[in-house]
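Quick start: read one record
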Amino acid sequence: MRPREDHEQTQLLVADEPVLRPGGDEHRLLATVLTGTVAGLPDGAERARNAGRAWGRFLVRRPSPLEQPGEDEAVAEVARLLDEEGFAAEPQGRQIHMHRCPFHDLAETHPDIVCGVHLGLMAGALEELGSDLEVEGLDVLVRPDLCIARLHRT
């Protein structure tokens, strides 16, 4: 480690190399603390869905103003977004099958928060796409390797 010059009185140490535990999940503690904090709020589940919705709008690829994606394209785009985030997602008609949850352990203990974020993520992406589909429901851990998002036309 080397000292970093700072304009204030505080001296910070900067690592020359990234400091990661081999084979460790460096985000697990942060995710657990934040999930527990949000779960403790009276409106935590709603806040989780709203945060997911905002991020879904932000992360999805926006269509050009001249194109309106059809139902199949909208489902495929949301599945693509989820796949990029580690869900091993695949579109199945008006469903999206997610074969992996990056937060499986937390989803078992706080599904209202963790799955609420994911539900909001899909809802926000569909809204941003201008789709008339919305998330009707999320079947959580149908099997240990499968969650199913059910979509319907508004």
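The mean pLDDT is 88.
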